[in-house]
């Protein structure tokens, strides 16, 4: 993954404690779904996956920062992540906030120190900034928290909020298109950009990314209801306890499973034009449906 | 400043409460030192300041996010900023964390939606990412907190930390070169890059930036000792109470004032080759010495 080498280069003269916190979180045993999607999308689009390495590491850095901040006491207040204490439990809250803050510019550095042309770098950075930003991932996290705290929060903050004016189905869809979907779609697109893919090819890969993004979230919600802490490496059953809007909560378990299958089938359909070259991406789509953690 | 227009464009479909928190902080009455430095440096380097507008807004966005996060209860725990309640006091902690998180990618978007060539965008983003990152501003904030909490923190986190092995003078210099200095130097450089300035011209402007960066911090520390809350719009006298390493604390008030003067003189010397074109930057250097808030 080259994550460790990149980290070392970007952290040369940084405070040790902060580097330890970033390493602890970034190099923890995760699925690396986003970087893998990026590298496979690059190969599917007939690029050399080495070209996409800077982009792939950037995606994991943004994902990692979002986990560190989401786990904070003021946010989801989680003690466990990937089977280990969360960053603020292992270090302290200030260090965790700063570790997350440091990972954002590091992600952009990772793209900008990569092997792409300036215009491919610009496009990669734009795509990542949008997906990670206020209209993408961060916006989704805010909507998710607003759902949770609807009753407790100051009414003036909520009046006129989009999350209040729509049906639960629409609100749920909108939250997850932003919160998880945007970054998963961006993962595939950052691979396609690195490969110099045509607009047509990018749009097909984008459709694949949107499909698995929503399927991934549905399965995540199902795992929270059905799985155990040992399997997922994090606390389970917390979504319902918090009053989160979830797929099983809105649609029931059986229909949620059907929906996940539908979106995976939709993703696989998007891959058809690529034939055998898209085998890896196809396997990821199927894995998402069958994963247990 | 075009800040508001940019915000509106970047926040079109974002959650209202989050947009309110970002607007509250970003559009609050600040000095806009970093954007002004950027635009003036661009003109000094014979560029059109309009070209640098995307870069200028990016600098204010990064600066604003750093203030929001520094004010959090787990960090400096401040209730007042620019004479108004801090973001987490006006909204809540989760919203403040997310508002800060959203401003980082927005800053990169601001550069990338600007008027520069792809390679000037890449260089601007690299310079900003470095200055805002783990070896720059965030690293400086970590060192600053470590100084404050030396006694309380877990010893294993501190053993071998750079801040422990050096003299107070060196530690103080290192903290502020990162914490304030890096972003002030980057402000000038982002203007120079936008102007397409020569290496020689950039290096002179960089020297100017480093000088006013350190002078700015010395005066900030002096104001915390000597000024009142009404003048600065934030709580004063808190540095000493927290055990922060400050210039007046290490060097005394009289020598600190001398040092600020020295660094402003050093900055003005760096501007000499630019003659009359650098008048604006020269005035800022003098203003930094004389400011009262």
Description:
Two copies of one chain form a homodimer. Chain A has a single domain (3-146, 168-290), classed as Orthogonal Bundle (Farnesyl Diphosphate Synthase), CATH 1.10.600.10. The first copy, chain A, is 71% helix and 1% strand. Chain A has 17 helices and two strands. Chain A has helices spanning 3-10, 16-26, 33-44, 53-70, 87-90, 93-112, 118-132, 137-148, 155-158, 162-165, 168-194, 199-226, 229-232, 238-242, 247-251, 253-271, 279-290; strands spanning 80-81, 84-85. Chain A has a two-stranded antiparallel ribbon. In chain A, helix 4 (53-70) runs antiparallel to helix 11 (168-194). Chain A is globular. In chain A, 54% of the residues are buried. Chains A and B meet through helix 2, helix 6, helix 7 and helix 8 of A and helix 2, helix 6, helix 7 and helix 8 of B.
Name a few traits of the molecule.
homodimer, Farnesyl Diphosphate Synthase, two-stranded antiparallel sheet, 293 residues, mainly alpha
In short:
2 copies of one chain form a homodimer. Chain A is mainly alpha-helical.
Mean pLDDT of chain A: 90
Biggest interface and which pair forms it?
A: A-B, 62 and 62 residues
Can you tell me the CATH superfamily of chain A? Farnesyl Diphosphate Synthase
Helix content of chain A: over 70%
Terminal CA distance of chain A reads 21 Å
Oligomer: homodimer
CATH class call of chain A:
Mainly Alpha
Estimated structural class of chain A: mainly alpha
For the secondary structure, the number of strands of chain A is 2
Strand content of the residues of chain A, in percent?
Answer: under 5%
Report the order of strands and helices of chain A.
Answer: HHHHEEHHHHHHHHHHHHH
pLDDT below 50 for ≥5 consecutive residues: which ranges of chain A?
153-163
CATH architecture annotation of chain A: Orthogonal Bundle
**Arrangement of strands in the largest sheet of chain A:** 1-2
Largest sheet of chain A: 2 strands, antiparallel
CATH topology category name of chain A: Farnesyl Diphosphate Synthase
| Number of H/I helices of chain A | 17
Shape of chain A: globular
